[in-house]
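Researcher: Let's run the pair from yesterday's discussion. Sequence first, then tokens, for each.
Model: Starting with the first of the pair.
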Amino acid sequence: MCGIIGYIGERQACQVIVKGLKRLEYRGYDSAGIVTEENGALHIKKGAGKIDELAEKLGLLEMPGKRGIGHTRWATHGVPNDVNAHPQTDCSGKIALVHNGIIENYGEIKEELLKRGHVFKSDTDTEVIAHLIEDELKSSKSFEEAMRKALLKLKGSFALGIIYTEEPDRLYFVRNESPLVLGIGEGENFAASDVPAFLEYTNRAVFLDDGEYAVITKDSCVVKKLSTGEVIDKPVQEIGWTLEMAEKAGYEHFMLKEIYEQPRAIRDAIHGNAEVIENVAKEIAKYDKIFFVAMGTSYHAALVGKYLLQRLAKKVPIVEEASEFRYEMEELIDEDTLVIAITQSGETADTLAAMKLAKARGAKVLAIVNVIGSMATRIADLTLYTHAGPEIGVAATKTYTTQLTVLTMLAIALARTLGTADKEYLRQLEENLNRIPELVEKVLKHDGALRELAEELKEKRDFFYIGRSIGVPTALEGALKLKEISYIHAEGLSAGELKHGPLALLEEGVPVVAIAPSGKTFDKMLSNIEEAKARGAYIIALGDNESLKKVSDVIIEMPPMDELLTPIVYVVPLQILAYHLAVLRGNDPDKPRNLAKSVTVE
């Protein structure tokens, strides 16, 4: 996830763009850049670092020209450095563009362009787009035609801002599965990833849909279909948000916004790993001694990974908290060991220490990380990125579901490589994984009902979350979310453990949240729910089986899906419930007490 902005009008473009980038910095903050145009020449300044640092260091506020585009980056391809920062250009230096998204087929396109003599400067997927447009320009009647032909060859997600020196009166903006909105002014026009970038200047906006592009001048804005070039009549909407509200896209808190971003984040995780996952699977296929190391929410993702590898790849991993790994496992680690480290930030101290120990003992280390260029990526032998984008709320939401998505892809690829699961089943599972964003969107519609439920439960002191098999990590994560932001005591546990002690704590009205999808342990789970119900517990069940209605006080109806995919979807209503309980109890869910986003000390 990155932030882009463009401006054309009578103001000094760089001033508008820098202001806009500051308001988009929550979308990415590892590098930034601006290109402006004056008298047919492009002026480009970019580098690694945050906007304020670069504005002073590079003189971003002194660039000439009254049209330009800017970018603040959350790296997806290529480490954060000066060369990989946007804008990216073609060989001629006449085309410059900024990009938010992931191009899935950039590798094959780049290989073809290299054969045709194109010279690349960066490691980004974005630069491929500039060269592809340049290549199409040789056989096209206009720049717009060349741009359309080039973009129709891309697979993946993209929001683009494009500037071309030989058309001094216009800018181009394109949307496909990445957000883009136009700002309509008087004698000036804007485009950006989010409304706050231009809200200081205008509250009139046009929201582009997927497969649309806009040609903007200072006095006009024309929207067209990318597939045909046909003009589309788009309504202009008046935005009633304040700037602060707009940064959160109208949501009250970043956490809620990030919960709702999960369908997009999951799609990006799938797109971003489509080309690399098979190669990683082949690299790790020989290892039978496998450890997962992680902390907090990432540890719960590791537990899901364990079940996935067991079921699909017939591997039996050990999951260890990173804080304990180096004290207990050192003598078990050798060159025949694979360590899979999961860390959102890539800077978690305990996880980094575990990775370093594994490397020192000769083990192969695979990192599953959200932040490109973080320390974990530099220690690991192999890295898979979750592509969730920046997460402002301390409590992990979209970074967790994207970790689960990547782990599911890895397990499928590993099973295919090893031949440990039926090929047709793996194909169906992969297809169903691609539909998970749609299922998450359906589950998000429970928001209103979950808020009403939170009203009933806000005075409760204790919660229990129970699950079986692959549902246990979801129970653990649901309990953690509640503890983190609502400050209510909660326990997550295997439902099979109830009669071995925890039943003694159940009394009349105690909420028990049951993770109960259809699957191999459903009947056992139903019996466990009945055990809790018989002790007076208030049962809140998540599932898709009609028989849950007989034993539950509240049912959150979930869409049917393969049991192995349920952890990605079933955690979403638990995130929402925790969020509403926190708000109703007067807490700030974005900044829970005593906690930090990344734990960089042991």
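Model: Moving on to the second of the pair.
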Amino acid sequence: MIENPNEVVTKALLRPVRVPGLDKPVALITLDNGFDHKKPNSFGPAGLKSLDDAITAAVESDPAFIAITGKPYIFCVGADITGMPLLSSREQAVELGELGHRVFARLRDSTIPTFAFVNGAALGGGLEVALHCHYRTVSTGAAALGLPEVAIGLIPGWGGSQLLPNLIGIAGAAQVILQNPLTQKTLRPKQAKELGVADALFEAADFLESSLAWAAGVVKGEVTVERPEIDREMWDGVLWFAKNQLDEKLHGAVPSANKALELLALAKEASFSDGTAAETEALADLIMGDEARASLYAFDLVQRRAKRPVGVPDRSLARKVTKVGIVGAGLMASQLALLFLRRLQVPVVLTDLDQARVDKGVAYVTGEIDKLVGKRRLDEGTAAKLRGLISGSVDKAVFADADFVIEAVFENLELKKKIWAEFETIVKPEAILATNTSSLSITEMAADLQHPERVVGFHFFNPVAVLPLLEIIKGEQTDDATLATAFAVGRELKKSSVLVKDAPAFVVNRVLTRFTSEVFKAIDGGTPLDVVNEAFDPMGLPMRPIALLQLVGPAVAYHVGETLHRAFPDRFADSPNLKRIVDAGLPLLVDDEINADVVKLLEVGDTPLTADEVRAKALAALAEEVRIMLDEGVVAEAQDIDLCMILGAGYPFHLGGITPYLDRSGVAERVTGKRFLPRGVADVRRS
């Protein structure tokens, strides 16, 4: 059997349970790795063997039925992916797939009724083991259910691609296996019941007792489980539509999505044994592919490194924050106010130039609170508390007792310096002064203050409530207490924080601006906009360049570009065409097509590039910029740049951020003379 020396073994603990009305005990198998919910159950080779042994013992006890459940809050979150990078051959990958299929099939093929009592999160192989059971109940407290494998470069490899469409129909299966993973969604318990994934839904408080009683009713014939007949007429049409959607969004760049489509098509008519054999082959191909390794690398960054940022001072230095002041009351400032209010639940006060702006900002926050109540994402008691904590004033003296003050005003260095000079005389000596600047120097901003050590960059990404990245920027004089407090606040805000050196545009904006700079060099030279726009389709980026520019806003992009052009004129071009677009104020896209009026604005040269040339030049520029950033110490390691690009710019897992793609495409070595990551970290180690 394959072994993973680092596996945290999930044991399958068997115990007999007496249920009223049944002559024989029930064999209840509980999955438990011995840790609390912060370290979820997962299936590695040893865990699968433990389940296999428990099923054997359960069958030998001749129970009324066999049921499988999980430890508190967790059913099982799937395969132990920490062991996947250890697989060095395709044969080992096949063995892993076959092992899971063999063990799970025992539940499906059992002559004794089998039940899954899904008491908590059930993802990937965790949901698949439940699908193999004859019946399923789910708790209202289960945090998430789904088959997210496509998002990490894999496919449901232990029966999910064959069982699910034949249980709930092809439309629901395509949603769970393709759409949800690619949009980072999972099923809630009620949705799982409505789709037919679960046969019964019970309240969390007495979930196990209710499930046992319900299962006993099924076994005795008192409860009938009805499942709808599967419509096979629409099967091909649903998959045709899904393929078109994938091609439009990913342009064939994500092998796992294409494999999942093939397996769903196979599930229409193939025998279960043929379907699962195809699953095993597909899983082995993907595990031994670079995209899956890059995805697993990205997943590890998001799950581990993001929670343990590098270079952070000791937590004990952090100061307590009991009141937050926000300078500005515009949209960004109001979004920040709502975030601080919901997460910290301390008084938050807004200020601006006049009462009308302040009132508008406060009204935005209270309006958003009302919307959350309407969507049942916030109870009325908490909402009332939050409404009582938000306020605004044009009198800056209300900031006197604030522990943390953040400004979110226009990107102008002199304006920000003036603001801090004024507020430094108002706030208490130990208050943290944070700036949400996207590109300006923290050091310069604090240079004239009496206490520059308490100024820190706190760069959020828009929309604030959605994007999880927070770049925390250390100025030359920022002290450890300020940094520790900033990271503590970031954790309370539920953001993934990365420590960044005070360098122009920091990480995400610097990388994206270098990218945009190369794009406009091609446009300025005469390359048609549609050619430039489609040049990066083979990478499967979340947005084409023109759509990205429209989302960011041409004016914002031009402003950041100016900052970087002044700092590094040899690498960041000052595009006259981007300036024309900003001045004209025209939308770049109309009905998702490039605006013809924008094309007419451009003044271009006579050296157009092909799409391949545009992509090659842009990737070379990115490799150069990333290497310079690492040499300058902007972040600790390449992993931090990848984490920033994933969480702040939406770079997909199959790229692993940016450096794994530059490594495996050969661009990194060709441009900089070396790789960013050791071979095998985010790709398959090849001789």
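Researcher: Give me one sentence on the second I can quote.
Model: The chain is about 45% helix and 10% strand.
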